[in-house]
Amino acid sequence: MKTTGYLAAALAAITLTACGDGTGSDLTPGSLAFTYEGARSGSYSASGTFERASDSTFAKQPFAVGAKGSDGANAFVSILSYLPVTAATGHMVLFALPNVTAPTTLNVDAGCATAECPAIAVVFDTNPDESEDEADFYVFESGTIEVTSVSSSRMRGTFSGTATEFFGDQSITVTNGTFDVPLVNPRFLLTRTLPAARIESRQR
Fold it and tell me: What is the Cα–Cα distance from 179 to 97, expressed in whole angstroms?
């Protein structure tokens, strides 16, 4: 079920949008942070504003942002965060959540494969502008997301859990996760900036 959960997170997150003229942003800043240990150890902390660099890429700067929308059949909330590591690469976090309208607790379960299943992926050392790269993907197999507040424009909460490599068996334990992100309505797809397509091509 790793594939289903990760692709759900990636595909939901590509619907994120920036307000304004399409090349900048007038969004309020967001933040997402956590610590991790296991196959990889460290901390992640990204605070800033999402900005589009073009119709298919985003500015490689720290940010965290969310989107509320619908795929036609299901309403959802997605979160995308990015933390630069080099000029070309960074660590990325993707959330795909069911439509959340009030504080609630969501449990991540690798065996769940419906639109109501929350999913989280952590992508280390990715170049979001490349169709293929050597990124290290980890997908949450279990965990908890606590949404502590949500409005039409902002969502806050905490999260923790265990994630396993998408292309391997190593795992990391994520603790002390927090997020505080602006929520926007989807307006376009950043189809080249996220790894869903490259995962599918590598699975063929």
Answer: 13
